[in-house]
Amino acid sequence: MVLLSTAIKPKESVGMGKEHDQVAERVAKKLGGSYDPTCSPDVTGPGGHAEVKSSAKEITQALRQLAGCRGPAYVVLPESEIPEAKQRLKGLKTGIMDYTGKIVKPSSRSR
Length: 111
Hints:
Order of helices and strands: HEEEHEHEE
Radius of gyration: 14 Å
Largest sheet: 6 strands, mixed
Oligomer: single chain
Number of domains: 1
Strand content: 15-25%
Number of strands: 6
Protein backbone atom coordinates (compact mmCIF):
# COMPACT_ATOMS: atom_id res chain seq x y z
CA MET A 1 0.00 0.00 0.00
CA VAL A 2 1.34 3.45 -0.97
CA LEU A 3 0.39 6.56 0.99
CA LEU A 4 0.54 9.92 -0.68
CA SER A 5 1.33 12.98 1.36
CA THR A 6 -1.49 15.50 1.49
CA ALA A 7 0.47 18.09 3.46
CA ILE A 8 0.33 21.62 2.11
CA LYS A 9 3.77 22.86 1.20
CA PRO A 10 4.95 26.33 2.21
CA LYS A 11 4.54 28.95 -0.52
CA GLU A 12 8.27 29.28 -1.13
CA SER A 13 8.55 25.62 -2.07
CA VAL A 14 6.06 26.08 -4.87
CA GLY A 15 7.70 28.90 -6.78
CA MET A 16 8.15 31.78 -4.35
CA GLY A 17 11.72 32.91 -3.95
CA LYS A 18 14.11 34.94 -1.92
CA GLU A 19 12.97 38.28 -3.38
CA HIS A 20 9.35 37.51 -2.46
CA ASP A 21 10.41 36.78 1.13
CA GLN A 22 12.50 39.97 1.36
CA VAL A 23 9.66 42.12 0.02
CA ALA A 24 7.12 40.49 2.36
CA GLU A 25 9.41 41.10 5.37
CA ARG A 26 9.85 44.77 4.34
CA VAL A 27 6.09 45.27 3.93
CA ALA A 28 5.43 43.53 7.26
CA LYS A 29 7.66 46.10 8.99
CA LYS A 30 5.80 48.96 7.29
CA LEU A 31 2.42 47.56 8.39
CA GLY A 32 3.62 46.66 11.88
CA GLY A 33 2.78 43.03 11.22
CA SER A 34 4.39 39.74 10.39
CA TYR A 35 5.13 37.59 7.36
CA ASP A 36 4.32 33.90 7.36
CA PRO A 37 5.32 32.06 4.17
CA THR A 38 2.92 29.22 4.96
CA CYS A 39 -0.20 31.38 5.25
CA SER A 40 -2.26 33.62 3.05
CA PRO A 41 -2.27 36.58 2.85
CA ASP A 42 1.52 36.97 3.08
CA VAL A 43 1.44 39.80 5.62
CA THR A 44 -1.00 40.42 8.45
CA GLY A 45 -0.87 43.08 11.11
CA PRO A 46 -2.56 46.05 12.75
CA GLY A 47 -1.67 48.31 9.81
CA GLY A 48 -3.38 46.04 7.32
CA HIS A 49 -2.89 42.96 5.18
CA ALA A 50 -0.79 42.50 2.06
CA GLU A 51 -0.25 39.94 -0.66
CA VAL A 52 3.03 40.06 -2.60
CA LYS A 53 2.83 39.31 -6.32
CA SER A 54 5.28 39.63 -9.21
CA SER A 55 2.80 40.61 -11.92
CA ALA A 56 -0.39 42.63 -12.32
CA LYS A 57 -1.82 39.52 -14.00
CA GLU A 58 -1.95 37.97 -10.50
CA ILE A 59 -4.24 40.66 -9.06
CA THR A 60 -7.35 38.46 -9.24
CA GLN A 61 -5.60 35.78 -7.19
CA ALA A 62 -4.35 38.40 -4.70
CA LEU A 63 -7.87 39.79 -4.26
CA ARG A 64 -9.17 36.30 -3.47
CA GLN A 65 -6.43 35.86 -0.89
CA LEU A 66 -7.25 39.22 0.74
CA ALA A 67 -11.05 38.77 0.59
CA GLY A 68 -11.56 37.42 4.11
CA CYS A 69 -9.44 40.07 5.80
CA ARG A 70 -10.78 43.01 7.71
CA GLY A 71 -9.17 46.41 7.47
CA PRO A 72 -6.79 47.93 4.93
CA ALA A 73 -5.54 45.54 2.24
CA TYR A 74 -2.77 45.94 -0.32
CA VAL A 75 -1.48 44.14 -3.38
CA VAL A 76 2.31 44.52 -3.46
CA LEU A 77 3.88 44.70 -6.92
CA PRO A 78 7.14 45.74 -8.60
CA GLU A 79 7.30 49.31 -9.92
CA SER A 80 6.98 48.17 -13.55
CA GLU A 81 3.56 46.61 -12.82
CA ILE A 82 2.07 49.62 -10.98
CA PRO A 83 0.46 51.40 -13.99
CA GLU A 84 -1.48 48.28 -15.04
CA ALA A 85 -2.38 47.56 -11.41
CA LYS A 86 -3.80 51.07 -10.96
CA GLN A 87 -6.06 50.52 -13.97
CA ARG A 88 -7.21 47.09 -12.76
CA LEU A 89 -7.87 48.24 -9.17
CA LYS A 90 -9.53 51.55 -10.11
CA GLY A 91 -12.75 51.92 -8.14
CA LEU A 92 -11.87 49.13 -5.69
CA LYS A 93 -11.06 49.61 -2.01
CA THR A 94 -7.86 47.53 -2.16
CA GLY A 95 -4.65 49.54 -2.22
CA ILE A 96 -1.30 49.08 -3.95
CA MET A 97 2.20 49.08 -2.50
CA ASP A 98 5.46 48.84 -4.41
CA TYR A 99 8.31 46.47 -3.52
CA THR A 100 9.87 49.13 -1.24
CA GLY A 101 6.72 49.25 0.88
CA LYS A 102 5.63 52.66 -0.42
CA ILE A 103 1.86 53.07 -0.67
CA VAL A 104 1.08 53.96 -4.28
CA LYS A 105 -2.72 53.71 -3.96
CA PRO A 106 -4.18 53.91 -0.45
CA SER A 107 -6.61 51.25 0.72
CA SER A 108 -10.02 52.69 1.54
CA ARG A 109 -11.16 49.57 3.44
CA SER A 110 -12.11 50.59 6.96
CA ARG A 111 -10.22 49.26 9.96
